[in-house]
Structure to design on (197 residues):
């Protein structure tokens, strides 16, 4: 069993690392069809309020920072030529930049951590109970506790018609044992106190 668990763990690590590497490379390296889309990381956003009989509108366009103005972004121009300057003065244009590669890497790291935790949980639920052997030291202690419970239940009067060995009776037995232990400790403490004084 120990060899099987180590082999399973090694296989799991290899599979997870290879899947993560492939996913990371596929997200970082641009596909040929997406090579032209690198300009999506930058954009100019112009917010134009209502002007005369024209309603307000938001315009977005992928342009460089120097071209981030109303003349390059607002297309088609909703006003005639002589009103363009007045309309553009009302528009507020902002240059925005983001890194889709960084966003992809963060999402991959997050998903890989969640996946590793799920694999570990599956390992604990499925494989660990098969591998784990009962501890030689804790088993006798557990048996002693069960014997004490059985003795306390045998000495305690059981009501007629009730089933023996119920959870409530176990709790009451444990409570009685605890009370006896506290009384014995008090007795020994008071006896020692009298002897010292």
């Amino acid at each position: 069993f120990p060899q099987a668990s180590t082999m399973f763990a090694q296989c799991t690590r290899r599979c997870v690392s290879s899947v993560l590497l492939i996913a990371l490379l596929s997200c970082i390296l641009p596909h040929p069809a997406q090579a032209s889309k690198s300009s999506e990381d930058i954009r100019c956003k112009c917010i134009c309020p209502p002007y005369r009989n024209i309603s307000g509108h938001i315009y977005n366009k992928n342009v460089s920072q120097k071209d981030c103005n109303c003349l390059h972004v607002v297309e088609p121009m909703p006003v005639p030529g002589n009103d363009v300057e007045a309309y553009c003065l009302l528009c507020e244009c902002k240059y925005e930049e983001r890194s889709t590669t960084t966003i992809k890497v963060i999402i991959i790291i997050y998903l890989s951590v969640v996946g590793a935790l799920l694999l570990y949980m599956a390992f604990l639920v499925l494989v660990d109970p098969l591998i784990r052997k009962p501890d030689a030291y804790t088993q006798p202690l557990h048996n002693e506790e069960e014997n004490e419970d059985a003795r306390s239940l045998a000495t305690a009067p059981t009501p007629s018609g009730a089933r023996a060995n119920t959870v409530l009776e176990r709790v009451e037995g444990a409570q009685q044992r605890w009370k006896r232990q506290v009384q014995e400790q008090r007795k020994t403490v008071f006896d020692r106190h009298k002897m010292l004084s």
Observations:
- Confidence is low (pLDDT under 50) at residues 31-37.
- The beta strands are 42-48, 57-61, 92-97.
- The first helix runs from residue 2 to 28.
- Residues 46 and 93 are 4 Å apart (CA to CA).
